[in-house]
Each structure stands twice: as C-alpha cells, then as structure tokens.
Amino acid sequence: MNVKDLFIQFFVSKNHQQIPSAPIVPENDPSVLFNTAGMQPLIPYLMGETHPSGKRLCDYQKCVRLTDLEEVGDKTHHTFFEMLGNWSLGDYFKKESIAYSFEFLTEVLNIPVNRLAVTVFLGDEQIPRDEESAKFWRSHGILESRIAYLGKEDNFWAAGETGPCGSDTEIFYWRSDEEIPENFDPEDDRWVEIWNNVFMEFNRNADGTIEKLPKKNVDTGMGYERIVAVVEGVTDNYASSVWTPVIKKIEEISSLPYKGNEKSMRIIADHIRTSVFIASDPAGIVPSNTDQGYILRRLIRRAIRYAKKLGIDINSNWEQDIAKEIIALYENYYPEIQANAKTVLKVLVDEKNKFNRTLEKGLKEFEKIVAKNTQIDGLTAFHLYDTYGFPIELTIELAQERNIKVDECGFQKHFQEHQEKSRTASKGKFKGGLAGDGEIETKYHTATHLLNAALKKILGPDTHQRGSNITTERMRFDFNCDHKLTEEEKKQVEDLVNEWILKDFIVTKEEMSKQQALEMGAEAMFIEKYPDIVNVYKIGDVSKEICGGPHVNRTSELGHFKILKEEASSAGVRRIKASLE
Question: Is 0.70 surpassed by the pTM of this model?
Fold first, then answer.
C-alpha cells in the first residue's frame, strides 16, 4: 500500500472523514491561477463556516506552484504536487495533532525517532512561546536538542492583517547518510521539512490586538512526493516510486539512461504530468496566451524542447505515451483524469504540432542571431515570439545558456504594440504577490518599489524584478542577477532604501494608457497581464512602476528597511528577504 493510501487509512481510523480533492483551478477564487496548498479550498471552513463532512477531515489535494518553475530539473522541485492534509475544525488541538503526526511517521511509516526534529513558535510580545507544543513533542521522545524555537516568519500563520492566526510546528527529517548531529540546526539543508501543523487559536483585531478564538482549528500539510522519497531512502525525488514508471518510459522512448540525462528527463516528466492534470481539470483549460492557458502552453513547449535535447523524435507519439503512463498511475485517485483522457491527449498533440511547425525554424533563426550578437534586443525577441512562437521565457532560457542578455522591457513594449490582449482576467490576480492588503502589507509593497529602484542604482539598469511575495512579517523580492551580492552591495542597497525613506518622498498615482506608461519608462512585471489603462505609482524621482497594489502616502511611513537574507532563487535570479522595523 502506498503512502497516500496509508495516510488516508490512518486518519479515517482516527474518525476523520476523507474529502475529495478540489479541482486544480480554484472555484470562486480569482486571486490565484491554481490551488497551491491543501488548505486553500478549505479557507471558508477554517474561517468559521460549517463543513458538511464534519469537524475532522483528511484528503490528498492536487496543487500547482509556479514560483520555482526554473528550478524544476533538480532533485526536489515539481510544478504539480500532491499535498496530504488532515484538519480539525473546532475539535481536537495541539496534543492530538502532534500525537497523530508522530504516530503516523514512526509507527505507520516506521521512520526512526532519531531522524526527526521539530520547530515551534518562539513567541513575541503578544503571543507566548509555544511551550505546550514543545512539551508534547518531548513526551513522544523528541530530545530538547532537537527542538528549535523560531519567530513569526517561520512558525506563525495568519489569514491576513486581521482574522484567525496562530503558531505552527514543523517536522524535519535528517535526509543524509552522514552522521546525525545531536543538535538540530534548521539552517542545515540536510534537515528537510516534511510536515507542518498549524494551530489557529487567536484572532487579530483591526487595532492589532490579539484575542483567543472560541473555536480552534488545526490545519496540516505534508508533501506526498517528498515523504515518499524519505520513506524509500532516496535523495532524488525522481528516483522514488512516484516517478520511476514515468522516468522508465522516457528512458525507453529516448533509448538513453536516466543517469547523465537527469535534468532533461525530470523536466519532461514534471511538465507532462502537470499538463495532464491542468488539461483534465473540469475548468476546461487549453493552451492560450493568457492565464492558466499560458502556463499550460509554456509547460508543453518546454517539455518539447527538452525532448529534442534527448534526441527524441518529436513527430512520434512520445508525449502521448508518457501521458498515458501518468494517467494510468493516477486514474484510481483522480477519476477526472481517465474521464478526460482523450481531451488531455488531444491538447498535448495539438500544441506539439502547433509548436513543431515553427520550432525548427525558430531554433535556426536563434542560432543565426546569437552568432552575430552579444545581446538580443526587444524587437528581435518579439520577432522570435511573433514569427516562430517562442515564448519570451524560452528565448531567455536559451540565451542564458550562452550567457547572452535579452532586453525583456523592449520585448514587452513591442508585444503590447502588436498583440491584442485579453480583457477578461480578473483584477484580483494582480495584487503583486500580497498575502493580504492591510497596513503592514501596504508598507512592504511600497518598499519593494524602493528596493527595485535601489538594485538598479547599485547593480545596473538591466536589473529587473522577477517576482515578489509579501506577508505581515517580511517581504521577499526576486530579481535577475548573475552573482551573489557582496556584503558591500547589500549594505549599499539597504542604505539607499533607508536614505529614500528618510527623504519622505510623496507617493503619487497617475492613470494612463499602458503604452504611455511604457514610453515614460515605467517598470512592470508581466506587462501583458495588465488592462489597457494602468496606474503608475511614482515615488519622488527615484521610482516609476505600473502596479495594482496598495501603497503608503509618504515613504516616512515605512520605518527602517533591513535585508535579512540574500540567496539564489533560480538560475540567474537572486532573492532578497527583508523586513521593516
């Protein structure tokens, strides 16, 4: 019996009701393209609505996350994954939740206790240190040296600026053949998080005060692919039983071994699997140039490119053979995959044929371009897109392999001049990475504009935002950069942001056409996603950005900006985590 079945069987034996996975495309939630976590479809019930299946629930949920798309190809990243979860809606709490997790891991999956460690909430001025969870862990044999107390960024969950919130406890596994250290260091990558139990016991009021909730909830999540790899003792997720039938099929089709061709085979396996799940969803997603359809198109075309790298005959039925293998693996768990199998195969073959017609010519054209140029300008990049169907991401990816830069802003300008954009996208999709829109998130969102401008000053004008994520505790900002920032560079960026904050610049908003905004040099991420009329936010004379998120009125409202961490996000992309104090 596999881990998924064991998980459901275990929690059903603990009086939980199994609920079906929600669709991969969220219902009645325009704020995201896909369900990204097991708890996402259950938010109304975690916020107080009564669930028709009762107070104890469990499931496995289909999820898609695209934040790490460029990292797919390594041992651990996936775009589609399954999340195992169990919930208590006003029933049991910390003691039982921790006991269930510990029993499942050690008695059902037979994971040795000495390979486990946990984190709990450190506490702050409003909410005490979570000694209760620590006590329960100790009662199960977790040593004090294997319990780490961490702050809000790591071990606290909140629905937003106001509403339910609470600490969490995360369970880690020593995923290495090296000797297990006596003391747990959560910064050591050999300790891998395998389960997260969130305890919602407080309510945050509009004035910032915290009060106990009359009904406490438990929300847990465990990644299926990761836990299977742990149980099977492999450090490469793609070497686990979740993936081996698919990898073997790719080996058979390509007549090549997995060893030595890992990256290409992982990308093909991952992208075809995700495409199968998106295309089989009841939402009826087909490849297009907008929203979920754009993601589906990008995944299929990226898989085709890596199939070519393996020497696979693109005109054969290779993608259908892989898809059939995936359908066979999942049809017993997700009936919609089998029910929509013909649709899935048609989506794959139609998009392949469409792309194949231009891919060969496009690659030849690309080779001609890079043979004569050290940079690809915006018009050339658009020509590759318009004439040969190359998504800008494919051009960037090919260029990065040759250490050649692509003028993305120039591409976007030409893209807007020639492409009729969809007007149907829900405006909720453009919140700029915010988890909420309260006062603190508003401050952090404004700070991302200053950080973006500071990075351009220090690292050069070709530096651009690649993504952001904002919570009430911190901001995360991704940007293109080919090196790890030096201590001096980090200090210069930090000092410049704080200098601008102290200058108390006024933040102004101006409504204009998208074309006008681009011509005046306004920055924008995913420009095609914005409507024809946009808001341009200016911060003094240091920043101009097309944006849909909320902003403060003056920079002095932000406080002191501090860089907490600078690290790699993906190839050619760095990530800064920062806070406002």
Answer: no
